[in-house]
């Protein structure tokens, strides 16, 4: 197989934006994992075949404990975490349409008593004293140039400028953990895993694969991986 370049991956990211991007301008709904979900216009809707479907059922949840989801998108995993028995879930995203969609889904699925939704750029807008049993991010895997300009909220679910957000997550996730806590991150084969492994080392952590699954998305075979971040 020919090794993919930055440009090859960036082109696939643009194709994903075109194929998976939101067409609707009114509040809408989608189905995933046998449930119906709300979506505010402009937000990313995880289609069947995207990582959300796999990761949401594959990751280990801290039953009875505190779960932080960075980049919650429409809130599928955050709601699922509460339904799996997490006592407290904090769901954050950098985009307002994702935050609003998650608020709607927390209400729709009746988990308002244990899910809090906030806008945050990775950990930057969270109280530094807050700690969790599990910290998780289904991150955006296509590296965009440093001068890339986001023109729609949905693009934040695909692109990360120079993997700077992911680098911050890798470096800071352990500072957010309670004793014995676990830091998790996903990554799929559309992104540059070799580079992310190097970024992890620069951040002083290593990534250990916990599980993976290959599925078909937008004409591509995509392998989805769950990694544990250890320091
Ligand atoms: C691959 S999507 C996953 C969305 C959702 N968790 C899911 O599984 O459907 C990545 C998410 O991370 C969010 N995101 C991107 N950069 C971020 C940042 N710097 N801080 C917080 N969230 C970010 C995006 O808006 C998007 O919702």
From TrEMBL:
Methyltransferase small domain segment(s): 51-140
Alphabetical keyword list: Methyltransferase, S-adenosyl-L-methionine, Transferase
Top-rank lineage group of the source organism: Bacteria
UniProt key word Secreted: no
Name of protein: Methyltransferase small domain-containing protein
Species of the source: Saccharothrix mutabilis subsp. mutabilis
């Amino acid at each position: 197989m020919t090794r993919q370049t930055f440009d090859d991956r960036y082109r696939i990211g643009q194709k994903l934006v075109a194929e998976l991007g939101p067409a609707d301008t009114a509040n809408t709904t989608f189905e995933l994992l046998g449930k119906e979900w709300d979506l505010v216009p402009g937000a990313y809707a995880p289609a069947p075949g995207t990582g959300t479907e796999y990761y949401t059922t594959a990751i280990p949840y801290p039953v009875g404990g505190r779960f932080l989801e960075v980049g919650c998108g429409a809130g599928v995993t955050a709601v699922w975490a509460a339904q799996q028995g997490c006592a407290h879930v904090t769901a954050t995203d950098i985009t307002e349409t994702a935050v609003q969609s998650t608020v709607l889904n927390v209400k729709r699925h009746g988990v308002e008593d244990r899910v809090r939704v906030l806008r945050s750029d990775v950990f930057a807008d969270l109280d530094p004293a807050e700690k969790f049993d599990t910290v998780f991010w289904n991150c955006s895997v296509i590296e965009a140039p440093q001068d890339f300009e986001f023109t729609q909220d949905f693009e934040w679910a695909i692109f990360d400028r120079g993997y700077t957000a992911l680098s911050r997550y890798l470096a800071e996730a352990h500072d957010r953990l309670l004793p014995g806590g676990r830091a998790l991150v996903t990554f799929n084969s559309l992104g540059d895993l070799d580079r992310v492994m190097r970024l992890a080392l620069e951040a002083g952590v290593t990534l250990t694969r916990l599980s993976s699954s290959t599925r078909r998305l937008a004409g591509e075979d995509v392998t989805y991986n769950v990694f544990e971040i250890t320091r």
